[in-house]
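Box 3.1. Reading complex inputs
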Amino acid sequence: MSTLVECKSLSHSYGKKKALDDINLTICSGRIVGLFGPNGSGKTTLIKKLTGMIHDESGSIVICGNPVGERSKALVSYSPDRVVFNAGSKVSDLLDMYELMYEDFDRVCAEENLKKLNIEKEEYVGKLSKGNAEKIQILLTMSRKSALFILDEPFNGVDPVAKESIIKIMLGCVPEDSSLLISTHQIRDVEQVLDEAVFIKEGKILFHRSVEEIRSETGRSLSETYMEEFR
Amino acid sequence: MPWNLDSDKPIFIQIVERIESDIVSGKYAPGDKLPTVRDLAVEAAVNPNTMQKAYGELEKIGLVYSQRTSGRFVTDDKSLIEKTRKELAKRSAAEFLAKMKELGISKEEAVKLL
């Protein structure tokens, strides 16, 4: 198990507001990590830094030995917190687009999973249910052979059955040595799939622990632990 | 179907118990090939590293053995399966008695209920 992501003394401000305040975070390979915190705690800012969408003010991020830049971006597969595809595209257009954009996109695997989900390739994105649109976005994100996968709110507004299939896509697709970072408010839905949980509050890391350790040491679930920390 | 597990108890132990019980009940017969870590983790909707650890524990107990190239199998040792059956039964009985005690029912009264 090697270090996959290392953030050191990471800070970021929007005007006077400190969105990230001296964050130190290490994620090892082969781990599924949950990122939790109230709205405005800095989760999305951290994700934007990891994906290189906003640049360093201070501190550093290294992903598989590369500082954030073109090389690190090629190693990260990211799904933003809302469906970003054009309503006028067909599902098959999205497959073509991913194949064109990403060398590590596994089209065969993506098409197999689409079949399992009973989603037609000729369907227009605009005609899909919210749950199915979200499933396709996660499926495409997870069909790359990336080192790090980042999913921001993958269950936004989807029903319990769709949630279950999204979780199965995640677990079925993530390569053994890659890591997956999931940011969500739906702790109950993911707590059994996580290795580790990171709680973030007002731009600082409140704790970073193994989820099994929390269960065995406190006899509490992750969602109970969260409620106690943030209530 | 995802397995119905308690989020406030270690998942690792619950997975071990679930597979032990699947072996004892005959869902997996002696000598049967078991699903891969990945496939069973997806089915159960649990963390693959936790599933791996559970398989490791079952190997340590001897209920499961792995063959380097062909996967993991249920033991052929029927006496070990029988022993596990008795252990699981004992554990359930102890849980039942603890619950009765909580309700203020003595061991003798509990036995009568049965």
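In summary: The interface with chain A takes residues 2, 5-12, 38, 41-42, 45-50 of chain B (CB under 8 Å).
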